[in-house]
Design brief:
Layout (H helix, E strand, L loop, with lengths): L10 H15 L3 H27 L9 E5 L6 E5 L1 E3 L4 E6 L6 E2 L1 H6 E4 L10 E5 L4 E8 L5 E9 L1
Parallel strand pairs: 3-9
Antiparallel strand pairs: 1-2, 2-4, 4-7, 5-8, 6-7, 8-9
Length: about 160
């Protein structure tokens, strides 16, 4: 193969060539900076969504489960913080006497499903009645022990 010879280009010719290329390409530094800013915002938004998913904001993450204990320590409830509409969830209740009751706010947002008759150790099974809500209320047992419950229900 033959070697290509480099033809020397004078500075004036190079400058004219670059000016012609800029006019053809349409270089606009202001526009490019706006695009870079938009890209940084998009990357930051994706990173925030990813961090929220890992944290459990959308369910099944590091902080997706909560455990609440009554003041006396007699009632302990472990539950999911984020519920999906239409799914069934279990509140693991420990140490509570029979006769668990949800207050009016929780009853409006959650439907309690029947557990097997005579099964005292069965968890409290619920399904959300609302599609999108932040719900807070109180779960009480027969002895008067109570625990605050805070949930988010997502579609």
């Amino acid at each position: 193969m033959a070697k290509r010879e480099r033809i020397p280009v004078e500075d004036g010719d190079r400058h004219r060539a670059m000016a012609r290329a800029r006019s053809v390409i349409g270089e606009d530094l202001g526009f490019q900076r706006r695009m870079w800013r938009a890209e940084r915002i998009a990357w930051a938004s994706m990173a925030a969504v990813l961090a929220a998913a890992v944290a459990g904001v959308f369910g099944n993450g590091l902080w997706s489960r909560a455990e609440v204990v009554s003041d006396s320590g007699a009632l302990r409830v472990a539950h999911e913080r984020v519920l999906r509409w239409g799914a069934t969830y279990e509140f693991d209740v420990a140490g509570g006497a029979q006769g668990l009751r949800l207050d009016a706010d929780l009853t409006a947002a959650l439907r309690v499903l029947e557990s097997a008759p005579g099964d005292a150790a069965a968890p409290l099974r619920v399904t959300p009645r609302v599609r999108f809500a932040l719900v807070s209320g109180v779960l009480r047992d027969g002895t008067g022990a109570q625990v605050p419950i805070r949930l988010a229900v997502l579609p």
